[in-house]
Amino acid sequence: MPISKAEKEVIIEELKExxxxxxxxxxxxxxxxxxxxxxxxxxxxxxxxxxxxVAKNTLVGLVVKKQGLDALEPFLEGPVGIAFSxxxxxxAKVLADFIREAKKMEIKAGVLDGKVIDAKAxxxxxxxxxxxxxxxxxxxxxxxxxxxFAGVLQGTLRNFVxxxxxxxxxxxxxx
Length: 175
Fold this sequence. Notes:
Number of helices: 6
Strand content: 15-25%
Shape: rod-shaped
Helix content: 55-70%
Structural class: alpha+beta
Radius of gyration: 28 Å
């Protein structure tokens, strides 16, 4: 059933908003997914704070042109779903995990901070550790010098106490 021009304009405006507000948008070919698998994918993406949209490629093409993302046009062939998120790693991880399990989807390309990235770059995003792990690593590297400095101070203090103890024993032996 064809959609009206007004409905198309609403869809275009909604997609434009999604591209503007999202930090990352990943295009995936969802060919071969049944309804249960598509529902499971959407649920996983929603739990990760992402949104999965499916729209006609011609409408997505219009939005892409308006946004200046002309490099995405070649990827708008066949059934294409777009995962949007403010977290640049979450949708890539969810899609990569789902593809490993289902073996039915394919990542085509993505947009990261307004720049078009290829499927290889999206897969590299998926391989990045989570934000929490990265923050823990940064915090650990910041704390390491402090622990080393505390150890040096503690060693100096310990040596001073040993020297005082040796002087005390020496004086006790003289008396």
